[in-house]
Specification:
The protein is built from 9 helices and 14 strands. The protein folds into 2 domains: 2-238, Rossmann fold (3-Layer(aba) Sandwich); 266-365, no CATH class. The protein starts with a strand and ends in a 7-residue tail after the last strand. A 7-stranded mixed sheet has the order 3-5-4-6-7-8-9, with helices on both faces. By secondary structure, the chain is of the alpha/beta class. A hairpin with a 5-residue loop joins strand 1 (2-4) and strand 2 (10-12). The chain has helices at 48-55, 83-102, 119-127, 154-167, 186-198, 225-238, 274-283, 309-321, 348-352, and strands at 2-4, 10-12, 14-17, 25-31, 60-64, 107-117, 135-141, 173-178, 203-208, 290-294, 300-304, 326-330, 333-334, 358-361. Residues 344-368 are annotated as: Disordered. This is Prolyl oligopeptidase family serine peptidase. It comes from Massilia soli.
């Protein structure tokens, strides 16, 4: 829990990744976006794939949840359509994290990079209006904030906000926006970047192509590193930050494949009603990483993309069914270990109690 606020009375729930050893390590701080709804119900972000890439290169990584989000204390303050104020307000918690980090013996307080995705990207660029000790560069990944309130020209307000940040910019930045970003498409990204640099800001825009169904969630995908790392590596070298891999990280253990059935054998999936089988048919068209879980009472859930789809599928399936669930499929293979059930093995009472389960935790639910 990282202290923040004018009197240090706010506590920011923060995930820390670091290599073995005493350090001091260069530091990456990654800042999250905002999902629709109550910020307190937003899950803790970890950005495991980006964190892993940096820990391999000797960095410590901190991922703070800003005030009012998840299990951080304090109250989330919404400035509505005033995007400039929204960015500055969120940047205060990033500054508090930097202040805390620079006091830790295991942090190299002169080698810090700050990154942010979506709302975290907006806040990261706002942070760059001050020359902050130790911070050498900023990485803005799909930065912005959407507000569909009545009368809010949020696109125009974002352009105005980035013009203000550019006029006061003190820290160089790298920006990345994808062609099929569902929130901040290429035209808006170009407008924001143009406003920023015309006002005097230092930023290089990387406009990459389509990424899966929505490039807004690229940073949360295990396949995203091949998109963001090459330009990030160049940027880090330009600002004097390390890029060579110096640590090995063991991959997370995989759920073992079984020979129970072919992954596309829909009739082989146990417990499901016809509605459940239709859901599994839909699941077969989802992106990897993915996982499908089932319950003896017929409930099901699939999870797609992001971190730990296996755990997410199991947790939501159990919530929907009221009992434990088991994984049936992961990615492109079956992991089911129980004996194959003959057709028609569910009795009428069981069928009457089945549920169509929960829709998957889809990548389309990426935060703003």
């Amino acid at each position: 829990m990282v202290p923040a606020g004018a009197r240090g009375d706010v506590q920011l729930q923060t995930t820390v990744f670091r290599p073995n050893g005493d350090g001091p390590f260069p530091l990456l701080i990654i800042n999250h976006g905002k999902e629709p709804g109550d910020p307190r119900l937003q899950a803790r972000d970890r950005f495991i794939f980006m964190a892993t890439a940096f820990v391999k290169r000797g960095y410590a990584v901190m991922v703070p949840m800003r005030r009012g989000f998840s299990n951080s204390s304090g109250t989330y303050i919404d400035h509505g359509c005033d995007m400039r104020a929204n960015g500055y307000g969120q940047a205060n918690d990033i500054k508090a994290t930097i202040t805390y980090a620079r006091k830790q013996k295991w942090i190299d307080d002169d080698r810090i990079v700050v990154a942010g995705q979506s709302y975290g990207g907006l806040a990261t660029v706002a942070l760059g209006t001050e020359a902050i000790d130790g911070v050498r560069g900023l990485i803005n990944i799909a930065g912005g904030l959407r507000d569909d309130g009545d009368g809010c020209d949020w696109r125009g307000e974002l352009v105005n906000a980035f013009a203000n940040y550019g006029a006061n910019n003190k820290i160089a930045s790298l920006w990345m926006y994808g062609f099929n970003d569902s929130l901040f498409g290429p035209n808006l990204a170009a407008r924001m970047h143009d406003a920023f640099v015309r006002s005097g800001g230092q930023a290089r825009l990387i406009a990459f192509g389509p990424f899966k169904r929505d490039s807004h969630g690229m940073i949360a995908s295990r396949d995203g590193e091949k998109v963001w790392w090459p330009d990030t590596e160049r940027f880090l070298q330009e600002i004097g930050m390390p890029t060579r891999e110096v640590f090995s990280i063991v991959d997370a253990p995989q759920v073992p494949k079984t020979d129970f059935a072919a992954v596309d054998d829909i009739d082989a999936v146990p417990y499901l009603t016809e509605a459940g089988r239709a859901a599994y048919r839909e699941y077969l068209n989802k992106m990897t990483p993915r996982a499908f879980a089932v319950s003896p009472n017929g409930a099901w859930c699939w999870a797609e993309e992001g971190e730990a789809p296996e755990m997410r599928a199991l947790a939501t399936c159990a919530k929907n069914s009221g009992q434990d669930c088991k994984l049936y499929s992961v990615d492109d293979y079956v992991v089911w270990q129980a004996p194959r059930m003959p057709p028609g093995s569910l009795d009428d009472a069981q069928l009457a109690s089945t549920s169509t389960g929960g829709a998957g935790l889809d990548q389309a639910d990426q935060p703003q």
